[in-house]
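Progress note, project year one: complex with magnesium ion.
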Amino acid sequence: MSKSLLIVEHEESLRESLRQMFVDDGYFVETSDSAESGLGLLKARFYDVIISDVQLPGMDCVEFFSKVKEETPDQVFIVITPSASIETAKKALKAGAFDFVMKPVISDEIGQLVRNAIRHRTLLSQNLLLRREIGKDFDFSSIIGENAVLQSIIGQVKKVVDSRSNVLLLGETGTGKELFARVIHNNSLRRDMPFIPINCSAIPENLLESELFGHLKGAFTGAIAAKKGLFAEADGGTVFLDEIGDLSISFQVKLLRVLEDQMIRPVGSNKAAKVDLRFISATNRDLKAGVEKGTFREDLFYRIHAITLQIPPLRERRDDIPMLAQYYLHLYAEELQTPVKGITPEALAVICTYDWPGNVRELQNVIERAVLIAERDNIDVSDLPEGVGVSEMPASRGQDEDFLTASLRKRLTIDNYTKEFIMKYENTYNEQQIADMLGITRKSLWERRKKWGLSR
Ligand SMILES: Nc1ncnc2c1ncn2[C@@H]1O[C@H](COP(=O)(O)OP(=O)(O)OP(=O)(O)O)[C@@H](O)[C@H]1O
Ligand SMILES: [Mg+2]
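Model obtained:
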């Protein structure tokens, strides 16, 4: 991933030595000897940083800078100044330039300044885009669940976080696709670079190209200023293409090019620029079926799914429901300042058997609502929305009244409840029936039994 610099300097020896120095440091560098030709170069591409002499032929840097800003409002700008022109340099700072260096230019000093400027630029765009997410660190522990399938997915993720392989996340709505994407990014080598989520179905088709690839000023009616696209903003980091299954075929072609050669061309420009992006895509659609039907390009499908993670719906990992419920219960009780501490075994039985079509998100919402309306210390069945309560419980559950009442009295924790349930019924019911009644799989029943030393 090379960062790009534009050096505008009329003194040839200084211009050339700066160019050489930054090229040696791995930057993509272009130079010009006047503001006029610099503006010409800016029509064709974006530069992460512009370094400009304070006095240019025919134009001082303040004027040059204000012209640049008309096209690229958030351009980062560094000024080189002899001590005699320090007042003009200060004006440039007031106009928003990042900093200035004094002549004679010391290479270490300007090198450091450019690195700082780029870091500043990255933080700025990250802050704007991710303000909502500040305070969350998205480490692996933010994915809750001990279900074996979920754990094996986490295991797979841990093995590939540091590679640049593109990841495809499949799963129903609310299963945690975006959560996984953030965890992958935040644990990858790219964690200090941007994570840019793009909801492919939320951006109108006619805006998608300019939003993603950026555009030059005047590229189309209404393009009053140049815009750096989201792909360029994400350079060095991760792009999360959410709802990728909703992209039109024509846009899929444009996307394919970026995935193939990591080059982006802003709308209205004839120059493509190199980027370094990792793509994580997500969809709740069946992309393979899309490929067969011709609504999803096969070549794009192969590019995005180097690693495919299929996140199971909550009803297929019911063993995680108690843990998720507890987690959200404590979270919301604290957030909403309510005294709710637990959940009654009856209510737990209901949420463990419900099918959760909205998956973890739905569970989260149901618990939040229950915490809010619960009148006692424990969430009860009456605190659950009707739809959830209505869900069919296994027929045998009706016979458990004594046990449930006893559990309620003892205010058992979920683990203890499960444990006592197993002990009480293991001679009456077979393994599958117990697992069904608890809403867990036979495998996790077996695992629990092993964990608690309950041999058959
Ligand atoms: N295993 C989990 N542990 C903790 N929270 C989870 C887990 N899975 C999902 N969540 C939470 O559930 C909510 C929905 O998850 P997310 O937005 O990642 O789902 P999604 O798969 O992207 O859904 P959609 O397809 O509707 O966009 C989020 O608040 C997320 O933090
Ligand atoms: Mg999502």
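The chain is about 45% helix and 15% strand.
Residues 141-312 form a domain with the Rossmann fold fold (CATH 3.40.50.300).
No further modelling is planned for this target in the current period.
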